[in-house]
């Protein structure tokens, strides 16, 4: 048998074996995946389909928005290897280590003012769960245990664990099937949309729409102050809820109203942090600081899982005081909290992100311009209802549901890996994506949509 035949048989066997035993996200058991990944380097994936055909494609998803430095970056893999030779893991209860301390110091130094304490965890969803525990314990320690519900907006997404599912859109979200088990929280409409003009670096928004939204937001919080302990939002960009950009001034409204009612403002920056929206944190678009902030995804440059929840000294002191019958500790302790490998890789990722010459501050604006100009012609397609770009995020919204398989295959034939959902064909490519690769992404998306949907 020829080497080519062996390769075909191996790939066919891998995809079939996968379907027999591996259950993939948001998919039925037994569904065959479209491609097998053979290797990944830089912005590129080497794929093979079930017939053994090879495809080289730009990872325009950044592997679910996390791989900001590209695949197999030597600085990250080097940090991982060095740390693995010293101490791959050690429990974090009663012990500490240098990578964790350095990472906490680095995160505090590069976070909105006032955030001083860092709680590490395994994933983005868990970081939000921890934020919710901080809110509940803060309010209980303040003598208000009944204020154990959150206020949030429709169209949000904060994770797949049970507490976080309760914060996702209860009607249109992907977790509505679990509503009988969800905690009841309070929801207000989505904040009014905002449009960012990349060429002029200006926002377009509707003052009247913001005023109406702010009035409703404050009214619901004021009417339910005795039950609401905090507000949680994805700042400026709602991710899995529709890749929707909203008026940044809504964050200022939330900050003001939270202060008036002693509610804690939680910002979920898991998808938006580390420069993705064109600011280090998306909250910078409004010039406000949260009481609690969740980070993940790009924290490790996509090399491995890991997250962090940051909070203020005011919150940390209240939770740690042990008043009103509450324990003098935050009641959470992941087994792999503060894992040294995670900490070492995160430190390397932050060094890359903050590099004056090659970090996000130079790469994201360049990528933003390329996406804005390259995706603009998509508006001429009959199937397209909107095109929007913010930072290193590009979105083409259709006026119908996307044929995910057909559009994905059409894009891969053009050298671009994407994963559309609902009516959205969107990209969050690595920051290292070159101008030529950005043009390829844009052309690939437009041609794939045109081929499948017209």
Automatic annotation (TrEMBL):
Keywords: Aminotransferase, Biotin biosynthesis, Cytoplasm, Pyridoxal phosphate, S-adenosyl-L-methionine, Transferase
Primary site of residence: cytoplasm
Top-level EC class as recorded in UniProt: transferase
Positions contributing to pyridoxal 5'-phosphate binding: 124-125, 268, 334-335
EC number: 2.6.1.62
Gene Ontology MF: a single term: pyridoxal phosphate binding
GO cellular component, one term: cytoplasm
Cofactor: pyridoxal 5'-phosphate
Binding site for substrate: 64, 157, 297, 333, 419
Swiss-Prot/TrEMBL site (Participates in the substrate recognition with KAPA and in a stacking interaction with the adenine ring of SAM) positions: 26
Gene Ontology BP, a term: biotin biosynthetic process
SUPFAM superfamilies given in the database record: PLP-dependent transferases
Record-linked CDD domains: OAT_like (cd00610)
Pfam families attached to this UniProt entry: Aminotran_3
UniProt keyword annotation of Iron present: no
Compartment(s) where it occurs, according to its Swiss-Prot or TrEMBL record: Cytoplasm
Residues modified to N6-(pyridoxal phosphate)lysine: 297
Catalytic activity field: (8S)-8-amino-7-oxononanoate + S-adenosyl-L-methionine = S-adenosyl-4-methylsulfanyl-2-oxobutanoate + (7R,8S)-7,8-diammoniononanoate
Biological or metabolic pathway of the protein: Cofactor biosynthesis; biotin biosynthesis; 7,8-diaminononanoate from 8-amino-7-oxononanoate (SAM route): step 1/1
Subunit record text: Homodimer.
Family of this protein: Belongs to the class-III pyridoxal-phosphate-dependent aminotransferase family. BioA subfamily.
Function in brief: Catalyzes the transfer of the alpha-amino group from S-adenosyl-L-methionine (SAM) to 7-keto-8-aminopelargonic acid (KAPA) to form 7,8-diaminopelargonic acid (DAPA). It is the only aminotransferase known to utilize SAM as an amino donor.
This protein's name: Adenosylmethionine-8-amino-7-oxononanoate aminotransferase
Organism of origin: Rothia koreensis
């Amino acid at each position: 048998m020829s080497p080519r035949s062996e390769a075909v048989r191996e790939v066919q066997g891998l995809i079939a074996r996968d379907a027999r035993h591996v259950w993939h996200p948001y998919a039925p058991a037994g569904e065959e995946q479209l491609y097998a990944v053979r290797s990944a380097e830089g912005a590129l994936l080497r794929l093979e389909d079930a017939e053994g055909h090879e495809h080289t494609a730009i990872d325009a998803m950044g592997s679910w928005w996390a791989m900001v430095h590209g695949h197999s970056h030597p600085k990250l893999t080097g940090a991982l290897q060095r740390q693995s030779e010293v101490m791959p893991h050690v429990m974090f209860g009663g012990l500490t280590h240098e990578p964790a301390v350095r990472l906490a110091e680095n995160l505090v130094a590069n976070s909105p003012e006032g955030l001083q304490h860092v709680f590490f965890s395994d994933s983005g969803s868990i970081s939000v769960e921890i934020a919710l525990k901080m809110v509940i314990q803060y309010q209980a320690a303040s003598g208000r245990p009944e204020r154990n519900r959150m206020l949030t907006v429709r169209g949000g997404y904060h994770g797949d664990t049970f507490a976080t599912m309760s914060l996702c859109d209860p009607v249109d979200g992907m977790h509505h099937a679990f509503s009988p088990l969800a905690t009841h929280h309070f929801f207000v409409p989505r904040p009014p949309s905002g449009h960012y003009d990349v060429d002029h670096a200006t926002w377009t928004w509707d003052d009247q729409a913001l005023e109406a939204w702010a009035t409703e937001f404050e009214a619901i919080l004021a009417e339910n102050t005795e039950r609401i302990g905090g507000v949680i939002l994805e700042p400026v960009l709602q991710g899995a809820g529709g890749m929707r950009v909203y008026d940044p001034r809504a964050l200022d409204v939330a900050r003001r109203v939270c202060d008036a009612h002693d509610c804690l403002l939680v910002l979920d920056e898991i998808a938006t942090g580390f420069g993705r929206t064109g600011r280090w944190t998306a909250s910078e678009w409004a010039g406000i600081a949260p009481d609690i902030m969740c980070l993940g995804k790009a924290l490790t440059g996509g090399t491995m899982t890991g997250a962090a929840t940051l909070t203020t000294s005011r919150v940390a002191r209240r939770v740690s005081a042990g008043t009103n019958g509450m324990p003098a500790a935050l009641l959470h302790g992941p087994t792999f909290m503060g894992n040294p490998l995670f900490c070492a890789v995160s430190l390397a990722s932050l060094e890359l992100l903050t590099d004056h010459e090659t970090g996000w501050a130079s790469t994201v604006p360049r990528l933003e311009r390329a996406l804005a100009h390259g995706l603009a012609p998509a508006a001429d397609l009959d199937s397209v209802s909107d095109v929007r770009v913010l930072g290193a995020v590009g979105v083409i919204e259709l006026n119908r549901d996307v044929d995910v398989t057909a559009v994905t295959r059409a894009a891969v034939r053009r050298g671009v890996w994407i994963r559309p959902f609902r009516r959205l064909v969107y990209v969050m490519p690595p920051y290292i994506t070159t101008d030529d690769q950005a043009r390829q992404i844009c052309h690939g998306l437009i041609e794939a949509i045109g081929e499948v949907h017209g």
